[in-house]
Amino acid sequence: MTRLLLGVTLERICKAVLLLCLLHFVIIMILYFDVYAQHLDFFSRFNARNASRSHPFSNSSRPNSTVPSYGPASAEAPSPSTKPSTNQSTTEKPLQPCQETPPGLVGRLLIEFSSPMSMERVQRENPDVRQGGKYSPPDCLPRQKVAILIPFRHREHHLKYWLHYLHPILRRQKVAYGIYIINQFGEDTFNRAKLLNVGFMEALKDDEEYDCFIFSDVDLIPMDDRNLYRCYEQPRHFAVGMDKFGFRLPYAGYFGGVSGLSKSQFLKINGFPNEYWGWGGEDDDIFNRISLNGMKVSRPDIRIGRYRMIKHERDKHNEPNPQRFTKIQNTKMTMKRDGISSLQYRLVEISRQPMYTNITVEIGRPPPRLARG
Ligand code: UD2
Ligand code: MN
Q: What residues form the membrane-spanning segments (predicted)?
């Protein structure tokens, strides 16, 4: 009897295990198809290829590591300004304004950092990017002129991947843009937000027509080209779902990673704080500035605003800022005196590289009290 019972129990356990395995298999298959099923979707792939072909001036380079899209792009309206023509093509027909939703997008992208990358390859694959990392769509009139600003020091390896992925994406998005690497001179404590303020000033000195500014970490790559790099009615937070946060927004007021403000939105908040030395807090301060000035943060759909971050250790001289918790409590008081209006720096060098403009700048060091903390 006991044997029989044991047998029955064993049989039940086996069945349960089998069922669990089956369930596991089904879940794995669903997840697998979520990313890769599009490979099998010959029809939409065919469509995407045709869409890019149908542009007489479109560049011959393929979308890198891309797969076709799931569905329509996010239908949010970008801010409305339309730029006058700066890029006259050889065609007789006057150029039309670029479409609100660019027609050649491919949707979800496969992003990986294991294959080796070189600047030569990036250059070879992006022949239509002009010296200094500038580009304008040749077949339509862009609605905005976008300066993309990257705070930087000793991250050459990441920069190659960033340029490799972003140039083709921005081209498909029909963005008129310039890439600016704001490189902190020397080895004093890093200051991300101050570097971005410098980027704003220097980009405008380079081209006063910029009316949109996108601030991106060098290690963040969008996983979907429907996440349109342009400015919107409200300040934009692009990096909604990051792999390191399980593709979720870590908290409602999160504004780190990649963000974008029009020129007037940026000036309205007096730019970014200059006084956050070291890691952390500056993104929360910027979020506070936006709310305190009566604006709201806009974001893409969580499925579209996905990002991959290149894995890295915390850099030297960018230790967590112990003052950050107190400082973000005081944005209301500090934002009027600390910002683009009080920015001071010394330009060390501007060098135009084929794929970007490098701006090396000395921004000083934290006051002695903070340096000790
Ligand atoms: C998070 C935020 C970032 C910022 C930071 C706190 C994400 C994905 N990003 O980044 O936006 O709020 O926390 O300050 O959550 N950098 C250099 N050299 C250095 C140090 C930093 O180039 O030595 C630049 C680089 O562009 C880097 C960025 O600063 O991507 C942010 O620094 P991080 O990547 O070390 O910090 P992380 O990933 O925690
Ligand atoms: Mn990072």
A: 12-33
Supply the residue whose CA is at minimum distance from atom 31 of ligand 1: 217
Probe target for ligand 1 pocket from 191, 192, 248, with the most ligand atoms within 8 Å of CB: 192
Taking phi first (over 0 means left), then psi (-120 to 50 degrees means alpha), and beta for anything else, what does residue 107 get?
Answer: left
HSE on the CB side for 99, CA within 13 Å?
A: 11
- The residue whose C-alpha atom lies closest to atom 33 belonging to ligand 1 is 314
Whole-prediction pTM value? 0.81
Domain layout of the chain by residue ranges = 119-362
Ligand 1 pocket residues where CB is under 6 Å: 150-155, 190, 192, 217-220, 242, 256-257, 279-280, 282-283, 309, 314-315, 318
* pLDDT tens digits for range 110-149: 999 999 999 999 999 999 999 999 999 999 999 999 999 9
Atom of ligand 1 nearest to the CA of 258: 11
Cα of 152 vs centre of ligand 1, distance in Å, is 9
Which pLDDT band holds residue 4 (cuts at 50, 70, 90)?
low
Ligand nearest 182 Cα, by number?
1
Nearest to 293 by CA among 338, 230, 233, 335: 335
Number of Cβ within a 10 Å radius of residue 36: 12
User: What is the spatial distance between Cα 161 and Cα 122, in angstroms, rounded to a whole number?
Assistant: 9
CA torsion angle 214 218 219 225 (round to 10): 40
Active site members = 217, 219, 279, 282-283, 309, 312, 314
